[in-house]
Amino acid sequence: MTASQQPETEVANFRNVIEKQLFYGRGEVLEQYSKAWELRTGEAYVFDKFLPSGGRLLDVGCGTGRTCFLLAGRFQEIDAFDIVPEMIEVARKRNSELGTGIHFFVGDATQLSVASDQYDAVLFAYNGIEGILDKQSQIKVLSEVFRVLRPGGVFVFTTKSCFNSTYARHFYVPRLLARMGLGQHDGGTPLEVEVMQGSQKMRWHTTNPFSMKALLRKTGFELLYFNSEVRLGRGQTKPSLTANFHRWDQFYACRKPQ
Ligand SMILES: C[S@@+](CC[C@H](N)C(=O)[O-])C[C@H]1O[C@@H](n2cnc3c(N)ncnc32)[C@H](O)[C@@H]1O
């Protein structure tokens, strides 16, 4: 990273922290996450198949702990963190009710305060990584995850694809029409699109799965598996190119080489 890119990355990261704290830390969203304790079909398949048993797990962007509580019996030790203190508060309360002994803390995925080669598995579940707003910060997260995994350790995460029909309606078609002089478009990117949901303006984040796979290779990871919730929901567990173009959840399992 050059010296001139550094402040931009810091601003983007600061914006990410504020956005996440405002979005996830209050009201309906916090309530929704406080009640979500189940795995999605694709998650159940990918976790079973690719997360090792025993050893140490780090759950990055754990929210209220939905995934790590369900994996608690499977690992000897779990550390879990999120950037939103209110979510960690909910997770800690449930942790003491269940006696699960998970170590929850508030932290930022772009700056892990953890020693190298520590974990057998790292998880960043349910569309957290694309919410980290700029590419340099995403690269930082991948490099940090790579660093804290032991050689042979596995990283499992989920993204939403930027190639989907909802985006065609909200982004690609308006952009094409604007280029033809038939309307206006704000010139945003499909990785971050503002849409109106009722009277509320929402910002959606997505990932280009081809760029993400290239970033993983650049970081040093071996991609073990890639599939979509749509395919896994239909029982289609074999990898397929079509998984790149399915709406919402896409699963990646990758490994730090031995
Ligand atoms: C869609 S939620 C998923 C929560 C949880 N992993 C789950 O599956 O239920 C994404 C989470 O990523 C967290 N997050 C986003 N950026 C982060 C960062 N830089 N460091 C740590 N957590 C972050 C958000 O606060 C949010 O809780």
Automatic annotation (TrEMBL):
Top-level taxonomic group:
Bacteria
Please provide an example of a Pfam family that matches this protein in its UniProt record: Methyltransf_25
Q: Please provide the Gene Ontology terms (biological process) for this protein.
A: methylation
CDD domains given in the database record: AdoMet_MTases
Which intervals hold domain Methyltransferase?
A: 58-153
Residues passing through the membrane, by range: none
What are the record keywords, sorted? Methyltransferase, Transferase
Alphabetically, the GO molecular function entries are: methyltransferase activity
Name assigned to this protein? Class I SAM-dependent methyltransferase
- Native source species: Microvirga terrestris
